[in-house]
């Protein structure tokens, strides 16, 4: 109030000084007969007249400026990109601009005098009521988001800002701005729906979400991810190393290296690994992720993690079933092969062998009747044939194996094959408690390796070593033959004989290592767990 009176007094003083200046420039004829008092009064009247004239000019100038400002305000009010409304104390519309009428889809004249609440969405009436009460009681600007019903029954989502202007002791007007946020709100709703669908899908599939800040190494994991690692969300310190240390030590280095490589190269991350929870529970999980640039938040690696322990168990059981089926097929095939060998061996021994023996007896009787020079030659050929038949019968089904075991069978084979051109040396350790089937398979493996050394390596010396240590059986066959070049490091040559050996080893999950080079011979080391 003080500043207003001071401004008024200052303005009057300036006008008086200006009037006195103008009066001094004019010459007035005053009769000498008039008194000094009349002269002073006349002088004051002239000054008042000039003051009034100047005040009138000033007021005219101010009125013109106010009219200009009013026109500008009217243009801003009508053409503003947001809706402007003026409400009375009962929320009745007193004034509305063009944008406001367009927002409601109703002519401006039809809106005036109508309660704003008649256009509100039914579910937002109470919300607007409390908003309007806050406006009246607080005296400060308030805001709220509500829905209006447009003339075409469409929904208008609006951001409403308002302030009360007091006109008197009990009268006031409420000035509102209405900003159309329909598109933004619809986008938010769609985003919420999509987010909810994602949450439902993640919950249904028991999929967790994790996020890694790059750089920084801070990690965010949701509640489900925490449960997979066996930690409580409120106790997790957000450290990458904390989660890394929960990964099984056999998988930890590989997971860390794969994730770092994915971050450096911007490639998707995929890994399956075991998690050892603090409680001792072991989970097998699959994690996926990709790099995303969130601008103000920086680069982040965002992904999913899911428990595939059941899937892993099913896969292992399926693999075990396949292995068991393969074992049964291989065992049945080898058994059929051995039965056929035995059948042929029995046929050679019981039929061909006896026939040859009968022929030899007949030849001896012929010798008494005639002295042919071809007799001795025929007897030698017959003896050699009998020996060959016996060797073939032994190779097919050595009866000594069933009677005295694998060591005796190998020694007998070495004795049969040794001669001036070939020396076979045997070394045996403890071989107790070997079952018949295993003994047969070991003999067949040795038989195949010896035949390879003779046939392909042209060896003159072969050493066979067999011993058992605990539950592990070690077999090594070394020859001094020509040797050969292995196809690739860590691989084994192909061939019917080696394939047969591998099939027999698969029955016991055995391993075979071959070491050879041209001119250095060949060594085959086999390990079988009983």
Please sum up the structure shown:
The protein has helices at residues 2-24, 36-79, 98-104, 108-111, 125-138, 182-205, 223-229, 240-244, 249-265, 309-369, 375-396, 399-404, 406-417, 436-455, 496-506, and strands spanning 83-87, 93-96, 142-149, 155-166, 172-180, 207-214, 219-221, 269-276, 282-293, 299-307, 423-428, 461-469, 472-479, 511-516, 522-529.
Major sheet = 5 strands, antiparallel
Shape: rod-shaped
Mean pLDDT across the residues is: 79
What's the end-to-end separation, in Å?
109 Å
Sequence stretches where pLDDT stays below 50 over 5 or more residues: 26-33
Into which percentage range does the β-strand content fall?
15-25%
Number of helices: 15
Order of helices and strands: HHEEHHHEEEHEEHHHEEEHHHHEHEEHEE
> How much helicity do the residues have?
40-55%
* Largest sheet strand order: 2-1-5-4-3
Structural class: alpha+beta
Write the layout of secondary structure elements.
Blueprint: H1 2-24, H2 36-79, E1 83-87, E2 93-96, H3 98-104, H4 108-111, H5 125-138, E3 142-149, E4 155-166, E5 172-180, H6 182-205, E6 207-214, E7 219-221, H7 223-229, H8 240-244, H9 249-265, E8 269-276, E9 282-293, E10 299-307, H10 309-369, H11 375-396, H12 399-404, H13 406-417, E11 423-428, H14 436-455, E12 461-469, E13 472-479, H15 496-506, E14 511-516, E15 522-529
Parallel strand pairs: 11-12
Antiparallel strand pairs: 1-2, 1-5, 3-4, 4-5, 6-7, 6-10, 8-9, 9-10, 12-13, 13-15, 14-15
Helix pairs in contact: 1-2, 10-11, 13-14, 14-15
């Amino acid at each position: 109030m003080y500043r207003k009176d001071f401004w008024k007094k200052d303005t009057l003083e300036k006008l008086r000084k200006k009037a006195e200046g103008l009066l001094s420039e004019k010459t007035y004829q005053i009769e000498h007969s008039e008194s000094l008092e009349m002269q002073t009064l006349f002088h004051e009247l002239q000054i008042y007249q000039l003051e009034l004239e100047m005040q009138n000019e000033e007021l005219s100038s101010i009125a013109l400026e106010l009219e200009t400002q009013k026109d500008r305000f009217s243009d801003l009010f009508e053409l503003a990109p947001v809706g402007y409304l003026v409400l009375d104390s009962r929320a009745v519309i007193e004034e509305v601009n063009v944008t406001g009428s367009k927002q409601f889809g109703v002519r401006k004249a039809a809106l005036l005098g109508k309660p704003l609440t008649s256009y509100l969405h039914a579910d937002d009436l109470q919300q607007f009521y409390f908003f309007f009460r806050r406006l009246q009681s607080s005296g400060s600007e308030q805001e709220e988001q509500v829905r209006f019903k447009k003339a075409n029954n469409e929904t208008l989502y609006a951001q409403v800002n308002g302030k009360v202007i007091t006109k008197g002791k009990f009268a006031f007007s409420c000035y509102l701005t209405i900003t159309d946020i329909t598109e933004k709100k619809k986008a938010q709703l769609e985003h919420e729906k999509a987010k909810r669908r994602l949450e439902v899908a993640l919950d249904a599939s028991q999929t967790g979400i994790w996020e890694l800040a790059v750089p920084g190494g801070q990690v965010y994991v949701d509640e489900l991810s925490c449960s997979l690692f066996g930690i409580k969300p409120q106790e997790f310190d957000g450290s990458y190393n904390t989660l890394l240390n929960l990964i099984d030590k056999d998988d930890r280095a590989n997971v860390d290296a794969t994730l770092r490589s994915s971050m450096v190269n911007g490639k998707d991350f995929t890994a399956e690994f075991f998690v050892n929870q603090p409680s001792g529970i072991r989970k097998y999980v699959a994690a996926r992720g990709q790099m995303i640039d969130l601008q103000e938040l920086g680069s982040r690696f965002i992904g999913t993690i899911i428990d595939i322990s059941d899937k892993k168990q099913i896969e292992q059981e399926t693999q075990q079933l396949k292995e068991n089926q393969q074992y049964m097929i291989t065992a049945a095939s080898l058994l059929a092969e051995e039965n056929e060998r035995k059948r042929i061996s029995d046929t050679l021994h019981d039929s061909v062998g006896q026939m040859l023996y009968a022929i030899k007896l007949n030849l001896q009787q012929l010798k008494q009747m005639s002295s042919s020079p071809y007799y001795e030659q025929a007897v030698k050929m017959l003896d050699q044939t009998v020996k060959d038949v016996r060797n073939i019968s032994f190779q097919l089904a050595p009866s000594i194996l069933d009677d005295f075991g694998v060591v005796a069978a190998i020694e007998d084979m070495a004795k049969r094959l040794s001669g001036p051109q070939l020396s076979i040396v045997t070394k045996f350790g403890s071989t107790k408690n070997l079952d018949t089937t295993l003994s047969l398979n070991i003999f067949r493996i040795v038989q195949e390796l010896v035949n390879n050394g003779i046939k392909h390596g042209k060896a003159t010396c072969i050493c066979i070593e067999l011993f058992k240590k605990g539950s592990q059986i070690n077999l090594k066959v070394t020859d001094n033959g020509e040797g050969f070049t292995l196809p690739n490091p860590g691989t084994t040559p192909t061939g019917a004989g080696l394939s047969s050996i591998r099939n027999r080893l698969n029955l016991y999950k055995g391993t075979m290592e071959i070491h050879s080079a041209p001119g250095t011979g060949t060594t085959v080391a086999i390990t079988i767990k009983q």
